[in-house]
Design goal:
This protein has 391 residues and is of the alpha/beta class. The chain is 33% helix and 26% strand. Strands 1-2-4-3-5-16-6-15 form an 8-stranded mixed beta sheet, sandwiched between helices. Strand 3, helix 4 and strand 4 form a beta-alpha-beta unit. The radius of gyration is 24 Å and the shape is elongated.
Amino acid sequence: MDTRQLAEKYFDQMVETRRIIHQNPELSNKEYETTKLITDQLTAWGIEIADIGLNTGAIGIIRGAKPGKSIGIRADIDALPMPEETGLPFASKNPGACHSCGHDIHTTTLLYVGKMLNDIKDELAGDVMLLFQPAEEGGGGAAQMKNKKYYEVMSPDCYVSLHVSPAIPVGSIGVKYGASGASADGLTITITGKGGHGAHPEAHINPITIAAYTITQLETIIARENDPQMPAVLTMGSIHGGTKGNIVADQVTIEATMRTLNPQLRLDMMAAVKRIVEGCASTMRGKGEAVFSKDGVPVLYNDETVTKMVHEAAEKVLGEGHVIVSNKPSMGSEDFSVFMDYGPGMQFSVGTKNEDPNSSIGIHNARNVFDEGALLTGAEVIVQTVRDYLK
């Protein structure tokens, strides 16, 4: 049976499963029912489950009939903390949670990719690891799986993942060779001064003044230190300090995000941030500290060989003209990149746009409607990729 026929065989079931997951979204590290749905279904299909001690998330293993290479396929399973406003009959039943990033499509696609590959495992020379990752939305899910040493169960020779795209027509995919998604590092800056009465500036050290000066100097990292041909972002998203106009606080806290497309630039910017924060505060008689979060995400770099493999597989099943090659990386981040510390990989975009204007509003929007044809497209591309890789 060719890949298109195999995927079409399960399409109605995929739609049904996707709507169940969509209607019951769960936030990062709380995906208990979603995990149960995944493990129950894998078990019913006779697919091996590897227990590495995760609270949520799951790993499935498919062993081909012959020895060979191995490939890891990853999908994220968590929802976003926001309401849904699509008006769909299967819209979220959980207040304050919805799948506006399309992870329900990712999860369902991987689940049925597992079913299809299990159906044809006798033709595979090698093994497949199905990585159902929790907590992609800022919860450090990939790092959790890394810390639980998922790679001791199987160490895939390469990795593939997908992500929905409301900018690409349904039935097509997008690929980007090389750097595809930015690194992402949370940053907390603490400025400490000396509190006092606003009427007596000689008696206090105002951390708000220091913070304002520090922020303007941090902006110069992008403008005056960074190579203009190497994209980078440093955004201050939150600042807190003080309670009243005539009371000088002891401390100000700033929260920011830093993003780059180059691993060395990431390290250089971290050093620059710390230098400026400490230097500005010291010059103005205060103390400055910059702390980067431990769950920062590295650059998502699509390996050329793996990307070409997916590209060619997609052309086989989707036809000519349905693979859109992009030259523009995203400054958004994806913790799928964590898995690529252990092997080359790539993530492709699967189109979810149709004639309905609501299908192209964009991810993380409460009103965006994803075309379910993406389930078929994503499954076809991944199954064909695995067939080619493990032939």
